């Protein structure tokens, strides 16, 4: 919205700053951060009053989690409110990729909100049936995948770009759509599975979003793509503003989610933010790189898949409990130890993901 202030510029005054994506990204970050600090306490108080007993705690979970009973959920509303407000203020709203990522974020957020509401109102951990969530997720992802594909340059449409391998494109044709749908839905649910400890999911999400924001800015500039020898996707630079808002809103939320959490993110936040990461990867043609940058989420999801399949086949468990962060809890690791070590892993993976821009 504020971008249109450039119409008042003569090219050498203050209003000219709004032409620059980096300036507006900084504005989005500060807007979201201040929003989180200002509206965090009143939102948490409202959630605590409305939810009463708070998020239901699994009876078969780690013993220490019972002490968290009564903590309100749906804290993702704080992140999403800060993120959407900052994006609407600072991003170009005529950019198709910004609109696509916002659509995915809000749509998955609605699914998560419905799931959280069902859990809180019924005081059980089931919520919306998994098949319903997956069906709605794939419908949303299908719309987003097609939207991104038709706005990609002609030489990139329905193609899968491979990191490291120079100028390598795999022509998926129309099969690119189900692949992109899987990326978006998979990312949403992987982040959702990771959100099991105080502060565990939000920092890796912020790290991944920051990394993808840099990638989006780079592939959206023809001079950078020529230097880095990566595929040019005009318009994706505006996504940096979205990711800056996510980073700021995430920090504001982490202030209240740090152990011991005053509020949980809930599916409202985890599904929305995971879907956003998947949508950004599809928009920037970096779906494979998302698997590296978000490697922690991949491992969390795989641990659940392996556990379920192995148990059905043998009646035995590979992990003491899945997702894998609960396995380490069962082994006696302190919750802050798990959280901080997983943060470190996320940062290492982000650096590796960024390196794929230059390693050719």
Give structural attributes:
360 residues, mainly alpha, 2 strands
Write up what this structure looks like.
The protein contains 13 helices and 2 strands; from the N terminus they run ααααββααααααααα. It has one domain (20-355). It has helices at 21-51, 76-90, 96-122, 130-151, 176-194, 202-219, 222-228, 239-257, 266-283, 287-293, 295-314, 324-330, 335-355; strands at 159-161, 169-171. Helix content is 64%, strand content 2%. It has a two-stranded antiparallel ribbon with strand order 1-2.
Write the layout of secondary structure elements.
Elements: H1 21-51, H2 76-90, H3 96-122, H4 130-151, E1 159-161, E2 169-171, H5 176-194, H6 202-219, H7 222-228, H8 239-257, H9 266-283, H10 287-293, H11 295-314, H12 324-330, H13 335-355
Antiparallel strand pairs: 1-2
Global morphology: globular
Which percent band covers the strand fraction? under 5%
| Global mean pLDDT | 92
Number of strands: 2
Summarize the helix and strand pattern as letters: HHHHEEHHHHHHHHH
Structural class: mainly alpha
Number of structural units classed as domains: 1
* Tally of alpha and pi helices: 13
The share of residues in helices is 55-70%
The gyration radius over C-alpha positions equals: 20 Å
Physical arrangement of strands within the biggest beta sheet: 1-2
Biggest sheet architecture: 2 strands, antiparallel
Detail the poorly predicted runs.
none
Kindly report how far apart the N and C termini lie: 38 Å
């Amino acid at each position: 919205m504020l971008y249109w202030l450039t119409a008042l510029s003569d090219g050498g005054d203050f209003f000219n700053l709004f032409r620059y994506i980096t300036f507006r990204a900084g504005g989005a970050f500060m807007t979201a951060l201040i929003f989180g600090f200002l509206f965090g306490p009143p939102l948490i108080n409202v959630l605590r009053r409305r939810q009463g007993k708070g998020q239901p705690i699994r009876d078969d979970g780690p013993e220490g989690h019972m002490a968290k009973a009564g903590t309100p959920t749906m804290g993702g509303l704080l992140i999403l409110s800060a993120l959407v407000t900052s994006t609407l203020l600072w991003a170009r709203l005529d950019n198709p990729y910004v609109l696509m990522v916002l659509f995915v974020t809000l749509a998955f957020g609605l699914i998560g909100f419905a799931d959280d509401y069902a859990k809180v109102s019924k005081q059980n951990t089931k919520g919306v049936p998994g098949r319903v969530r997956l069906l709605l997720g794939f419908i949303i992802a299908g719309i987003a995948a097609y939207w991104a594909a038709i706005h990609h340059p002609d030489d990139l449409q329905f193609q899968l770009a491979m990191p490291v391998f120079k100028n390598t494109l795999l022509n998926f044709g129309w099969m690119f759509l189900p692949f992109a749908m899987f990326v978006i839905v998979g990312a949403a649910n992987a982040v959702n599975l990771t959100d099991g400890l105080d502060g565990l999911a939000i920092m890796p999400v912020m790290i991944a979003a920051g990394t993808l924001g840099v990638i989006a800015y780079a592939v959206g500039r023809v001079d950078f793509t020529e230097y880095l020898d990566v595929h040019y996707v005009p318009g994706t630079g505006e996504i940096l503003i979205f990711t800056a808002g996510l980073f700021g809103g995430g920090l504001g939320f982490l202030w209240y989610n740090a152990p011991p959490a005053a509020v949980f993110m809930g599916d409202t936040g985890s599904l929305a933010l995971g879907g956003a990461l998947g949508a950004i990867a599809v928009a920037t043609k970096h779906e494979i790189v998302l698997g590296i940058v978000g490697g922690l989420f991949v491992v969390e999801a795989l641990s659940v898949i392996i556990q379920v399949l192995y148990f059905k086949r043998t009646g035995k468990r590979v992990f003491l409990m899945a997702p894998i962060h609960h396995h380490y809890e069962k082994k006696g690791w302190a919750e802050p130890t798990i959280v901080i070590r997983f943060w470190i892993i996320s940062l290492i993976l982000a650096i590796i993901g960024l390196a794929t821009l230059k390693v050719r």
